[in-house]
Design goal:
Length: 386
């Protein structure tokens, strides 16, 4: 190794060493004999690359790729941030108001986990499971979820182009959309025939429990004796809002558990006054059910308070925070996650429905079926119980 390369290794490896130190503070590092060999391997790989690659290597680009790969290996919600991106997070500046109404995860490319009701993406026919290959001709192959969300945002009324791959289709679809400012989606409700009310929760807020109580009271006046909560494609809202909503239906027992590295597992349980709503209950879920909606589903299913109908949920119940590095860059990293009442993982695994109902695959431009098989099955089950 040349003297110049050794100096570069020392300077550029500082973020890696800082990460190791930070990891030890979080309880993430192993014993010394396990940690340092990995850093020596990194040193060897860096040296071999800078000295033997077919053309001169951009050291900054090489290190950015290494840090990005490290964060990507954790989970889809963790990301390595440049110094500029870290400053943007620290500033607390809100995201641009305009959006297309999708929530993202990562699977080789960025992938749509849910499409918001009535959004530009929904009107264009985008669906949960679609891969986003390009955003305004910018490849997403090496783009984190954190970056993808911000790239899709912009001024309301501004255009954005997304290149979509659906399923195994070889031909991508280029979709032009106009960003819109979207307000929190209100609860909607209806009767599904005799005796069964349906409430659609498109996103969670701190007001969701009180709004849901009001909607259920109105449905009961219309004759509802059982209830369906539609949580499909519901990803947004604070995690604790999902647990607060679960308290309406669960009178006693554990609602969830919370794990933080190096801390005692926290048990979140129902308290006196919870469980005031005793109607028979069914929940509609799919791959877009995540976050607060997933915690609600986990709490009710775990306490045998409701059955889940549909598809496996999205598996996103972690909390993230910013961990700064000495050069100004940072890790946006999951530091805690919620578990089922039984203590089983949800994050990146999801919840398996009690009654699995596979949704049909639709080609671009195809109309969804008029009948809602998942809702129909849930209503049928509730009526048999009544």
């Amino acid at each position: 190794m040349t003297t110049r390369t050794r100096i570069a290794v020392v300077l550029i490896s500082a973020p890696v060493l800082a990460f190791a130190v930070m990891g030890s503070l979080l309880g993430r590092t192993s014993a010394g004999q396990e940690t340092y060999p990995h850093l020596r391997v990194f040193d060897d790989v860096f040296s071999l690359t800078t000295n033997n690659y077919v053309e001169p290597v951009d050291v900054e680009k090489l290190m950015h790729g290494a840090m990005t790969g490290l964060a990507d290996s954790l989970d889809a919600d963790s990301a390595f941030l440049t110094a500029d991106q870290a400053r943007a997070v620290e500033s607390g500046a809100p995201l641009a108001a305009g959006e297309i109404g999708v929530d993202l995860t990562r699977q080789y490319y960025l992938r749509i986990i849910a499409v918001r009701d009535g959004s530009p993406a929904a009107r264009a026919g985008l669906r949960s499971g679609d891969f986003v290959r390009l955003i305004d001709r910018q490849p997403t192959r090496e783009m984190s979820v954190w970056e993808g969300v911000r790239t899709l945002r912009g001024k309301p009324g501004s255009p954005v182009s997304v290149t979509i791959i659906r399923g195994n289709a070889a031909d991508p679809h280029v979709i032009s959309l106009t960003r819109e400012e979207m307000m929190p989606a209100p609860l909607t409700s209806k009767m599904a025939g005799t005796g069964v009310g349906v409430v659609r929760i498109a996103e969670f807020t701190d007001q969701t429990p009180s709004a849901l109580r009001t909607s259920i009271a109105q449905l009961q006046k219309s004759g509802a004796k059982a209830l369906v909560l539609d949580l499909r494609n519901t990803t947004r809202g604070p995690l604790l809002a999902g647990l607060a909503t679960a308290r309406l239906f669960v009178a006693s027992g554990t609602l969830a558990m919370r794990d933080t590295r190096g801390a005692t597992r926290e048990t979140i349980a129902a308290v006196t006054g919870d469980g005031s709503l005793a109607l028979p209950l069914a929940l509609l879920v799919d791959g877009g059910t995540s976050g607060a909606a997933e915690l609600l589903a986990s709490a009710l299913a775990g306490q045998k308070r409701a059955e889940l109908f549909g598809e496996r949920t999205g598996g996103r119940t972690a909390q993230q925070r910013l961990f700064k590095l000495p050069d100004g860059s940072a890790l946006w990293m999951s530091y805690a996650w919620y578990l089922t009442p039984a203590g089983n993982p949800i994050h990146e695994r999801g919840l398996q429905p009690d009654v699995a109902i596979e949704q049909p695959d639709l080609e671009f431009g195809a109309e969804p079926p008029a009948a809602d098989a998942t809702l129909d099955k849930a209503v049928e089950r509730l009526r048999s119980r009544l």
